[in-house]
Description:
The protein is α+β, with helices and mostly antiparallel strands. About 50% of the residues lie in helices and about 20% in strands. The protein is built from 3 helices and 4 strands; from the N terminus they run ββαβααβ.
Amino acid sequence: MLVTFQSNAYGNIMMFGDEAIRLIKMMGHSGTVPSAILAEAVPAALSNLLEGIHKEKQHTTSSKPVDTEDEVSIAHRALPLIALLESAVSHKCDVLWK
């Protein structure tokens, strides 16, 4: 399954379902697809996502062996979504995904 994130302030972003749902849950949402976040709630969702990624980084660096070069971290996978959310915050736009 692919999930497409959309906002009037940024281009569409497509992600594989598992990673997308994980990031949606980090934003403080239930993980339901399709769904949306209204413009007023986007700053909190962005803050939740950044906090979740920070916690994930701390947990990963303390529990994973050093030889994980082939894995793409959730922090790197989240970069396009973070950019979309930041743009939505600055333009006061809703964010939806389907």
